[in-house]
Amino acid sequence: MKKILMVVLVALIALALIAPIGCAAKSSGAASNPWTITVTDKSGKSQDFTEKDAAKLTVVDVSATLKKKDGTEVAQSWKGVTLSDVLKACNVTEFSKIKVTAVDGYEQEFEPAAVNDNTTILGFVLDGKAITADDGLLQLVVPTMSGKSWVKNVKSITAQ
Q: Which of 27, 108, 116, 151 can bridge 140 by disulfide, Cβ–Cβ 3.0-4.6 Å?
């Protein structure tokens, strides 16, 4: 009986030591925050753009001040890829406006000047931390415009 208890005790200790390793491996995979958005050109041709595609582009740092409805301002530091680089990567070269749509249906349209501004980004790191699913994984950050123009949880980008 003592041998059985000793074997069970050793097995439980081994399991307790091994379990955190498995959990750590899972959490590190989740940290990559996989996302996909649909980019549609002026002719209606669509393609997916993912975090793997973004990894092929130059990541930029942007300091931005989020201007909220109540007039308060929040200084933020973002990392992401420029909207213009995303469009180029998806072969979207002709447009008079770009419409960015969130998962919840919120939409904003942007003129070429805002689209081509090198501070307009699809941000995925805010103040040194990857944004989470609660934050929308991917956010359009437009420092030259009010917070109303920023789009959380981007679902699609459409050229018009």
A: 151
